[in-house]
Amino acid sequence: MQIAPGCASTSVSVRTLRVSLLVWCASAAAAVAQPAASQQGPQTQTDSYTRYELQDPGSAAFRIIYDVTATTPGAMYYYNGIRAGAEEEVHGVTDLATGQSLRWEVVDGSHARANGHPRASVEGHFIKVWLARPVPEGGQGRVRIDKTYVDADSYLVEGQGADIVFDRSLGITRNAVVLPSGYEVVEANHPVQVATEADGRIRVSFMNAGPDGVPFRIRGRRLPDGASRPPSPQDSGAEAVPRSGGGAPTRARVGYTVTERAFEDRDITYYLLQPETNAFRLFHDYTEKRVGMDRYLNVVRAGSSASDPEAYNLDTGARLDVEQLVGRAITERGIDVGRVPDPDTEVVAIWFDPVPEGGSTRLRIWETYTDPGRYLLHGDEFVWDRGFGRARNTVVLPDGWYLAANSIPGVVDLTEDGRVRIRYVNPRPDQIQVFIRGRRR
Question: Per CATH, the architecture of 8-28+38-222 is what?
Fold first, then answer.
């Protein structure tokens, strides 16, 4: 994970949390003050990800990199709650769209309630962030908060062997904990991914599929001197490992790199239309981080056809230019899909302003797919049988149908208009094959 620059020069330690400390990032010192009007409605957010970097054993300190997306339409501020019992040092706040530093201050709960966070606890304290722009209707405001907590109840040294323990309730879906240099992980009470960072530190990643916080506990043990070191460089030119008919590798993937599933922020929602149409409307969200990139190419899956594409820059709310290209037209437009397109190859191309240095662009792409091979009416039931490669996927059943079978565990609830919705969280790096059957009510 690459950390965007913040306002480290303006770090301020908050020891009592009883004062409201106003801090201006240097790049915002001359900015014109925004109006004092409160945002409307309760504060809402999405796509939260937290990275905890454990500091020296015995310090009780851990650095927190918190990525969060504000979604309240018209919101000018985002409020990040400060957990009771912790001492906090804020290093800076960054707008992820531009890479620029944002203004922030620490306020009490009464101020937060009166200025855009009506559900804030009056006993609490909050980091108030001035967003780069009011959240557009249907859009977002993406920020990164960089801070350090000192909390002896969450991070401690335990036992005669001086093991370290991180024991904390985690309420968001996506999390990572990075152990101090020279420590291995020997205990994790929830399923985790484990990987080695470029500097040799061990990273433990966790995805919470449930609606509530979970008591997450990991234990680290000191390694012998010399055992902790950066991983060996991987041979990017290594040949692909052959696979069996079932898709399993036929030998060890020695060049395999463990990617952090929890950090992935791509997600997709399918709205199933009436099964006689074999069609479903979908949107998928994607963050483009490659500097200078000005397009997104969606190669339509074989067996499907796409129609009615729309695309939006979620950071600004702007609608983007979209092209549908088939076969030879793809090459004539100068688009590279990694191979020579055949006559049936279909691409939806979305164009946007180049990604700035230090920034990123968050896209939402709408399309209608028709796929008679994987979504169909069979007798008096519909059948959905489709592979999902993303970590987060949602399926909304067609109006007037109920759920009769679902092969992959998912969280079930109702949409605002009463349709059955299933949310899937796949913490594994492979695809899940989702089979659903539905019947008319």
Answer: Sandwich (2.60)
